[in-house]
């Protein structure tokens, strides 16, 4: 079964219906330039509404170690997601499982990335879009992903209910990660789109 992460939650109601729809993980964005940014206080409030057995992923983009630690100390994160140019040494210093996001375009050597971030829990593959760090709703050419990557792949970038089944068939990822594709507006999730996305993933026949 392909796991599902829904990222960029900013509202208690969204947390509740995303969890009730069957997501395995939710993502909170601690990147101030994102329209989905949440403060530590907001994150604490959101997580108070989260039922058990849903993992919480904290997303950072080139944050300082102090900023990551401040979040880590006050918000019950299960996994850290580094979506910038963080080095392996930076990522591993927090003593928490981490996902390293790689923004994929032609010429990016994903095998080399997997070797460099060998202690990551997974590589999270997103689309490369000039001038942004992610959450763009853009997809990339899934054929650029080697079949022999030694780390689990979390596929993201422009996924939505209409393409997620094809994406899973093509890539066979460990998990899929979605943000823009299940939104009514930036940072506001759409319950019907979330349900449709999760239904597609759970009913795919491989
Ligand atoms: O969600 C954001 O605003 C964001 C900002 C900076 C870096 C990453 C961000 N989100 C992550 O981007 C990918 C793809 O998202 P989308 O489905 O294409 O919108 C996903 O991993 C989000 O967690």
Notes on the structure:
By secondary structure, this protein is α/β, with parallel strands linked by helices. The protein has one domain: TIM Barrel (Alpha-Beta Barrel), CATH 3.20.20.70. Helix content is 29%, strand content 22%. The protein has 7 helices and 10 strands. Strands 1-2-3-4-5-6-7-8 form an 8-stranded parallel barrel, surrounded by 4 helices. Helix 1 links the parallel strand 1 and strand 2. The longest helix is centred in the C-terminal third of the chain and has 12 residues. The termini are close together. The relative contact order is 0.17. The mean pLDDT is 97. The structure holds ligand LGQLAAA5. The site of the ligand O=C(O)c1ccccc1N[C@@H]1O[C@H](COP(=O)(O)O)[C@@H](O)[C@H]1O has 26 residues, from strand 2, strand 6 and strand 8.
* Cα distance spanning the termini: 10 Å
CATH superfamily: Aldolase class I
CATH topology: TIM Barrel
Q: How many structural units, i.e. domains?
A: 1
If helices are DSSP runs of H or I spanning 4 or more residues, what is the number of helices?
7
Main sheet overview: 8 strands, parallel, barrel
Q: Percentage of helical residues?
A: 25-40%
Pathway: Amino-acid biosynthesis; L-tryptophan biosynthesis; L-tryptophan from chorismate: step 3/5
InterPro entries: Aldolase_TIM, PRAI_dom, RibuloseP-bd_barrel, TrpF_fam
Pfam family, one: PRAI
Keywords: Amino-acid biosynthesis, Aromatic amino acid biosynthesis, Isomerase, Tryptophan biosynthesis
